[in-house]
Amino acid sequence: MKTILFFILFSISLSAQITKGVVVDENNKPIPYVNIWFANGNLAATTEADGTFILEVKTPEQDLLFSALGYASKTVKANETTRVVLIAIAIPLSEIVLGKPKESQQKELGYYQSGGFRYHQNYFIHAVYFDLAEKDRTFYPYLKEIKFRTDSETDNAKIKIYLVNCQPDGSPGEEKLTEEMIVAVKKGSRKNLIDLSEQLVRIPENGFFIVFEKLKIEENKHYITYNYKDKNGEKKTHQGLTYQPELLLTPFEDANAWFKERQNQWTKSSKVLLNKPNSYENLLMKKYHNKYLLPAVNITITN
Fold first, then answer.
1. Cβ-proximal residues to 29 (8 Å cutoff; 6+ apart), any chain
2. Contact 298, 130 (CB under 8 A)
3. What whole-number distance in Å separates Cα of residue 206 and Cα of residue 130?
4. What is the DSSP letter of 115?
5. Model confidence pLDDT, tens digit, residues 93-129
6. Residues forming a β-bridge with 22
7. Which helix (H) or strand (E) holds 101?
8. Of the ranges 69-73, 99-103, 247-251, 275-279, which one carries the lowest mean pLDDT score?
């Protein structure tokens, strides 16, 4: 069985309050798929395609952080979110088009696997670094395709994907190499392909990150009913809530991957360390011990 580490118990506290609103730009145009974070906490929600959102807060004065690539982040009290205006900032697309690829030759590389997945993480935002050798950049200077694998309990679950530059400290930057792409994935364990041949993305010298963002939107919700026994041995039933799709993760000895878990801040991934990795209980999990976990993703580069 897969080890799923993340369940949110679906229960409504009597003290919780509902806040809702819409996020727009300076021209009053709705901004879809904006991340909304609890201040000093986890990802709270994502705006829908029409810019609207609804979420539970503890108090009307609770701070919410609104964040979207290409806009200045904004912190707003929960009781002031009827209409949130984000201001666009000057983060230009890199000058990446220097000519049309010939596409007579290509090469695939990365971290993709097609099976044997048994480890999940509850991070909503992953970033995977690709740093090509100078020889590869010379012979295959363009990015043609991204291949990644997901596992979804619902059909047409949406995930946001985009490319950004690399900061001097090795973390994901704010300079976009492509526009954001919203990809709908099929139900089940699936291979997904994104064709970038028309975008003419030239690979930077210092590499780039592919960013995957799961979206906390209504159509990505999946409820799971499960039974358990409490400390008194009585049978209980709970309903858990997850957001689809799951990014399937692969173990590697050495890799540069980052994630966002709290406060809209990047954190560098560390190795997974299992207790008693050689025990029988960890027989199927042993391959993850002392390894970095990355989304199963490959890129195809071309000339």
1. none
2. no
3. 9
4. S
5. 554 444 566 767 999 999 999 887 877 777 899 999 9
6. 52, 83
7. none
8. 99-103
In Å, what is the CA distance from 5 to each residue of 51, 122, 240, 249? 30, 7, 12, 13
DSSP 42: B
Among residues 18, 8, 71, 62, the alpha carbon closest in space to that of 39 is found at: 62
Contact 143, 130 (CB under 8 A): no
Nearest to residue 246, comparing CAs of 153, 116, 130, 143?
Answer: 153
Copy the structure tokens of residue 255.
């890799």
User: Token pair of 124, please?
Assistant: 């909503």
What would the mean pLDDT of 229-254 be, rounded to a whole number?
88
Q: Across the chain, how many H-helices and E-strands are there?
A: 1, 25
* 3-class secondary structure, 219: helix
- Separation between Cα atoms, residue 33 and residue 123, nearest integer Å: 17
3-class state of residue 160 by DSSP: strand
Whole-angstrom Cα distance, residue 196 to residue 198?
5
Give the model's pLDDT for residue 280: 84
Supply φ then ψ for residue 80, to 5 degrees.
-125, 30
- Phi, psi for 259 (deg, rounded to 5): -150, 160
Weakest mean pLDDT among 165-174, 211-220, 226-235: 226-235
Q: How is residue 94 written in tokens?
A: 């890199």
